[in-house]
Design brief:
This protein is mainly alpha-helical. It is built from 10 helices and 2 strands; from the N terminus they run H-H-H-H-H-E-E-H-H-H-H-H.
Length: 200
């Protein structure tokens, strides 16, 4: 079994789902996608099934039963083992205790913001801020609905964290836009400045 299969970022969410209840991979995939936009974009059927196979081989989950619904193929329901529960707790503890520098695509793009030219940077950041506000408002609505429906706050605590990050990003984007508009953010010399002057 390749070690990298157990290092896949979806290992933790899969173990967490099985902590809630036994389930089969098809249902895991649907539930992970439903709970997270990041998972919806990143998890493929093949990746999930390979991960489940690796977790089973590692002894962290075990087949519980096989289910058939109508004409669909049989599906194996998996349950978390004691070793799987211990691994889940170990990983959770380590990830919560230890801050990691997580590289995002936005962070990589912001490093080259100057290439857009001052006006282009203001335009792009303004559009990002608008989209972030729309998404954050929708996420706030969904969180409020979940809490109003009686979902325990601890079950949606990650949504609170994500909203805090989004609000902080909006505040930062707004502050940079303002600095660009009033001229207090020093602008790079060289190619980016030449590009800006050509467009003027």
């Amino acid at each position: 079994m390749p070690r990298r299969a157990l290092d896949n970022p979806i290992v933790l969410p899969v173990l967490g789902l099985l902590l809630e209840q036994p389930t089969h991979p098809h249902q895991m995939l649907a539930e992970l996608r439903r709970r997270s936009d990041a998972h919806a974009a990143a998890i493929t059927r093949g990746t999930l099934y390979n991960t489940v196979a690796a977790l089973s081989q590692a002894g962290w989950l075990a087949p519980l039963e096989r289910q058939r619904s109508g004409n669909r193929p049989e599906r194996t329901v998996y349950a978390l083992t004691d070793a799987g529960r211990e691994e889940l707790v170990r990983r959770l503890d380590a990830q919560i205790r230890t801050p990691q520098r997580e590289f995002s695509r936005f962070l990589g793009a912001v490093a080259h913001l100057g290439a857009l030219g001052r006006d282009g940077a203001v335009e792009a950041l303004t559009e990002r801020g608008r989209r972030l506000r729309q998404r954050t408002a929708e996420d706030e609505r969904r969180l409020e609905e979940a809490l109003a429906a009686g979902v325990p706050r601890m079950h949606v605590i990650e949504a609170e964290y994500a909203l805090s990050l989004a609000r902080a990003e909006i505040a930062w984007v707004d502050s940079v836009i303002e600095e660009l508009r009033i001229g207090t953010l020093p602008w790079p010399s060289g190619a980016a400045r030449e590009l800006e002057e050509e467009d003027a």
